[in-house]
Amino acid sequence: MKRFGSAAWNGSLREGKGSVSTESHALENHPYTFFSRYGEKPGTNPEELLGAAHAACFTMSFVRLLGMANFVPEQVDSESEVVIDKDGDGFSITSVHLAVTAKIPGIDQATFQSIAAKAKAGCPVSKLVKVEIGFGATLLS
């Protein structure tokens, strides 16, 4: 299985603008700029897209493992915070923190934590990210 995303850019780094698209057209020519990446201007950036991909990947892995253990969640909310910091002449992703909050009937805390940790470790995006991934899992009653 292969999936793709693409990006286009016009102009210089600070004055130019770009767009990102996905094969599924979930994003189609969605704008991004230097200031949407490193500032607070509207548009997206690679780090937020990576965070969304990571959260989605983890969530599917988690729900799959829950199903294998005969649990069906009422609700799962996941977030992946990706931090980018100055690194010499450029920038690096320096940390990622994945968090999940879920409501799952009949599950105990130990089982919840165990399945969540396995999902974090087994998610293909987690395997791709080479910085240590912080993690938090909250079971709602």
From TrEMBL:
Q: SUPFAM superfamilies per the record?
A: OsmC-like
Q: Which domain of life is it from?
A: Bacteria
* A molecular function (GO) term: peroxidase activity
Q: InterPro entries annotated for this entry?
A: KH_dom-like_a/b, OsmC/Ohr_fam, OsmC/Ohrsf, OsmC_Ohr_Peroxiredoxin, Peroxiredoxin_OsmC
Region Disordered: start-end pairs: 1-22
Q: Which Pfam families match?
A: OsmC
- Can you name this protein? Osmotically inducible protein OsmC
Which species is listed as the source? Bradyrhizobium erythrophlei
